[in-house]
Model the fold of this input.
Amino acid sequence: METCIFCSIAKGQMGTAIWENDVAVAVRDIKPEAPVQIVVIARQHIKNIDALEDANLAGKLLMAVREVIKQEGLVEANKIIIQGIEVNHLHFVVMSDERYQPA
Done:
């Protein structure tokens, strides 16, 4: 396998994690297309969503995305994109125009 930049990030060799657990790590996107853009990267190298066969891991990854959304205050204002195209490593992009401000 060629060098995978997201594997390096998941191992703590690159980037600065803003959140992490045993299945995922989250970093701020270096080329954001929205005011708030965070990449949640699976620690395990999985090419894309089609290659994700472990239902338990899938659930843990979605819960990781949820925890990042809660931490960043994006509960009511977010969009999630599941990717594995530009970088052949499963990741979730969380985007928001603004942080949620409760009434």
In short: The chain is about 20% helix and 25% strand. The first strand starts at residue 19 and ends at 20. The chain has a mean pLDDT of 90. The first helix runs from residue 5 to 10.
